[in-house]
C-alpha cells in the first residue's frame, strides 16, 4: 500500500488521495494527470479514500442520476453511487471549501477490466467538486480568436473534436474538446474555462492533418472508442487558452452531404436545448434548476447560435473553414 498522500490540481479543484493500494493509485493517476491547466484562484478541496471491499456494495437505485455504468442516489449522508461491478462511492463529509469521499472497490475485481469503473466514481467526485466551486461542467469543446469564443456542441461521435482540431490548425486557440467549465462571473458575464487542452481524435484524422502523426501508435483513451488523446501543444504549440467569454453556441452534426458544409442560424430555444444536452443534469430539483438558470442567463447575455452540418470528408476541401468563419 502507498504510504504517502498525493495531490492533483484539476481546474478549480485540488484532489488529495489518501494512502491506497498501488493498483488504485496507478489508475487514478492515469485519470487525473491528463489535467495540465493551472488556476490562480483558491482551490476547492476533494479528498478521496479508496479501499478494497470484500463484497459488492448495495446497489444505488439512480434516484439522483443514472449513467451507463453507474447509479447515484441522494441520501441523508450525501451522494451515494454504485457501479455495475459493485464498487461504491459515498460523499462522507462536506465542509466550507471542501469535501471527502469514501470509495470501495471489490477486491476480486481489481485485476479485471471492471477496474475501469473506478474512473466513473472518481468522475462523480470531480463533478461534485466543480459544482461546489461554482462551475457547471459541460461536455463540449471551445475555441477562441479575435474576441469570439465558440462553444462547439455535438453528440458523441458528432464531429466536435475534428472541427476543434481544424479550427486550431487554422489559427484559433482551444480550451479543450471534451471537458469545459461554465459559469456567470462576478460581473454577470458568462465565462468558460479550460480543464485540459487535448483532442480525442480518430486515427483517420491523419488523412486530413498529417502533422498529428500516426495515431495508431498512441494508446486509446477509452476502451469504448478507437480515438486517441492528443495534446494541442504537442501538435500546434501556443494554440491554447485558459478562459474566454463565450459568444456563440455552435451545434455540430455529421451528414453525407454533397457539399462540405451547411450553416444556418440557431434560435434561442434550439441554443438552449443544444447546450443543456451537453450537461449531465441530476434529478434533484434544486441542482437541475440551478443548471438551467445558468444556461438561460448565459444565452441571454447575447450569444448567437449556428447550426453547422459537416459533410463526409469535408476537411479535404479548403473552403470549409472559410465558410464557417464567414458565418461568424
CATH class of the largest domain: Alpha Beta
Structural class: alpha+beta
Q: Beta-strand percentage?
A: 25-35%
Task: List the secondary-structure elements in sequence, H or E.
Answer: EEHEEEEEEHEEEHEEEEEHEEEHHEH
Describe the structure.
The protein is α+β, with helices and mostly antiparallel strands and 328 residues long. The chain has two domains: 6-134, no CATH class; 137-327, Rossmann fold (3-Layer(aba) Sandwich). It has helices at residues 22-32, 117-132, 160-169, 232-235, 268-276, 285-300, 320-327, and strands at 6-10, 13-17, 44-53, 65-66, 70-75, 78-83, 88-95, 98-106, 136-138, 141-145, 148-153, 173-176, 180-184, 190-194, 198-201, 228-231, 243-244, 248-254, 261-265, 304-310. Strand 7 (88-95) and strand 8 form a beta hairpin. The chain starts with 5 loop residues before the first strand and ends with a helix.
Helices and strands, with pairings:
Layout lengths: L5 E5 L2 E5 L4 H11 L11 E10 L11 E2 L3 E6 L2 E6 L4 E8 L2 E9 L10 H16 L3 E3 L2 E5 L2 E6 L6 H10 L3 E4 L3 E5 L5 E5 L3 E4 L26 E4 H4 L7 E2 L3 E7 L6 E5 L2 H9 L8 H16 L3 E7 L9 H8 L1
Parallel strand pairs: 2-3, 3-8, 11-18, 18-20
Antiparallel strand pairs: 1-2, 4-5, 5-6, 6-7, 7-8, 9-13, 10-11, 10-12, 13-14, 14-17, 15-16, 19-20
Helix pairs in contact: 5-6
Amino acid at each position: 500500500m502507498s504510504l504517502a498522500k498525493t495531490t492533483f490540481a484539476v481546474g478549480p479543484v485540488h484532489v488529495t488521495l489518501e494512502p491506497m493500494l498501488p493498483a488504485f493509485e496507478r489508475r487514478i493517476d492515469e485519470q487525473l494527470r491528463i489535467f495540465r491547466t493551472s488556476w490562480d484562484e483558491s482551490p476547492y478541496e476533494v479528498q478521496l479514500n479508496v479501499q478494497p471491499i470484500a463484497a459488492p456494495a448495495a446497489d444505488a437505485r439512480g434516484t439522483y442520476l443514472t449513467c451507463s455504468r453507474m447509479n447515484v442516489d441522494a441520501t441523508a449522508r450525501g451522494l451515494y453511487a454504485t457501479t455495475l461491478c459493485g464498487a461504491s462511492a459515498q460523499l462522507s463529509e462536506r465542509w466550507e471549501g471542501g469535501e471527502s469521499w469514501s470509495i470501495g472497490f471489490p477486491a476480486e475485481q481489481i485485476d479485471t477490466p471492471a477496474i475501469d469503473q473506478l474512473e466513473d466514481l472518481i468522475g462523480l467526485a470531480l463533478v461534485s467538486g466543480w459544482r461546489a466551486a461554482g462551475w457547471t461542467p459541460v461536455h463540449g469543446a471551445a475555441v477562441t480568436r479575435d474576441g469570439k469564443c465558440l462553444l462547439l456542441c455535438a453528440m458523441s461521435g458528432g464531429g466536435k473534436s475534428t472541427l476543434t482540431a481544424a479550427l486550431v490548425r487554422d489559427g484559433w486557440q482551444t480550451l479543450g474538446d471534451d471537458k469545459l467549465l461554465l459559469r456567470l462571473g462576478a460581473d454577470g458575464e458568462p465565462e468558460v474555462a479550460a480543464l485540459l487542452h487535448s483532442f480525442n481524435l480518430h486515427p483517420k484524422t491523419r488523412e486530413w492533418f498529417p502533422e498529428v502523426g500516426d495515431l495508431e501508435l498512441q494508446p486509446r483513451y477509452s476502451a469504448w472508442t478507437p480515438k486517441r488523446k492528443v495534446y494541442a501543444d504537442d501538435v500546434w504549440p501556443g494554440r491554447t487558452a485558459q478562459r474566454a467569454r463565450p459568444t456563440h453556441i455552435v451545434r455540430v452534426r455529421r451528414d453525407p452531404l454533397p457539399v462540405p458544409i451547411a450553416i444556418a442560424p440557431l434560435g434561442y430555444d434550439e441554443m438552449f436545448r443544444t447546450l443543456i444536452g451537453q450537461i449531465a443534469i441530476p434529478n434533484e430539483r434544486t441542482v437541475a434548476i440551478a443548471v438551467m438558470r445558468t444556461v438561460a442567463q448565459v444565452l441571454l447575455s447575447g450569444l448567437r447560435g449556428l447550426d453547422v452540418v459537416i459533410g463526409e470528408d469535408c476537411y479535404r476541401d479548403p473552403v470549409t473553414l472559410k465558410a464557417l468563419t464567414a458565418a461568424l
